[in-house]
Amino acid sequence: MRIITQSQVERLLPVDACVDVMRDAMMATSRRDVTLPIRQFMPVPKAPGKLALMPGTLGDPACFGIKLVCKYDRPHGDPLGTHVGMVMLFDSEKGIPLAMIEGSSLTAIRTSAASALATDILAREDSTRLAIIGNGEQAMRHVHAMRAVRNIDHITVWGRDADRAGEFAKAVVDKTDITTEAADSATAAVAEADIICTTTSAKQPILSGADLKAGQHINLVGSAIPTTAEVDDEAVLKSRFYVDYRDAAMAAAGELLGAIERGIVTESHIVGEIGDVIDGNAPARGSDDEITCYKSLGVSSQDLAAAHAAWAKAEAENGGMTVDLLT
């Protein structure tokens, strides 16, 4: 078994390469060549955190495993971040462990790569202007991911803390040399955007359908439980709504579930899963004027595919640390 650390994950799994890994994972998901139990959470008594458990199987490459993630509330800028954990990867044929892989970087990379895949499929080809709502780790990850699929030449950012948003904008310029500015409001940030990524911890909507313009594409990334939402009912109604996995969306996509509960839309508002679009079983954008929306929740097939890609590369170069569990 190989143990693959955070720095090794970053080197073995660059986001541009991970987009293709996510393409295969999403097709496998929509073809149901997977086993995907809905994510479970276990509270940690007398602590500000919980343990998330995401088991699953993947048919090709044939593997199974589980992601264990400790989600703790930490101060902004804490080097541990809010997610600390690991992915345990097993070979399906022999039932033996292949790797234990650091989970926070793998999750961050595969999440942004999945958004990039959805953007590549749904956003207008001529999209160049990006809006990032939020300024945490996923915000910077999404800057790099969007650049992997579109020629981004202008970025606008907004966060609830104006000073942090300004610092983040400067950091984006330092890392990308792309013109980047901090906006005074979320509304102003998305006003001229072609692509919008919401990467916040917002409990209530920070974007309204009234803020959206024809032709935009939105990646909703931050909310992952049914009681929270980053956009309002009008935004859901105005957009062609896509998901990574329908069952997960109907269990935890707060924006969609809230709109359904209030009678604004029904489950049929989901145009399709991203894998269905790739396979030609669901339509993509129909015109340059439509607003498309991808709701990212994350499923274990993405983690397994990313973990297997990192393991395979480490195996080829004899990287990581090897541990013999049978002696």
Which properties best describe this structure?
alpha/beta; 8-stranded parallel sheet; 327 residues; 11 helices; 8-stranded mixed sheet; 16 strands
Tell me about this structure.
By secondary structure, the chain is α/β, with parallel strands linked by helices. The protein is built from 11 helices and 16 strands. The strands form 2 sheets. Strands 1, 2, 3, 4, 5, 6, 7 and 16 form an 8-stranded mixed β-sheet that branches. Helix 1 runs parallel beside helix 3 and helix 2 crosses helix 11. It starts with a strand and ends in a 5-residue tail after the last strand. The mean pLDDT is 94.
Low-pLDDT segments = none
Tell me the overall shape: globular
Span between N and C termini?
12 Å
Radius of gyration of CA atoms, rounded to a whole number: 19 Å
Task: Report the count of strand segments.
Answer: 16
Q: Which class of secondary structure composition applies to the elements?
A: alpha/beta
Average pLDDT, rounded to a whole number, is 94
Biggest beta-sheet profile: 8 strands, mixed
Tally of alpha and pi helices: 11
- Summarize the helix and strand pattern as letters: EHHEEEEEEHEHEHEHEEHEHHEHEHE
Helix content: 25-40%
What amount of the residues lies in strands?
Answer: 25-35%
Could you give a short description of this structure?
By secondary structure, this protein is α/β, with parallel strands linked by helices.
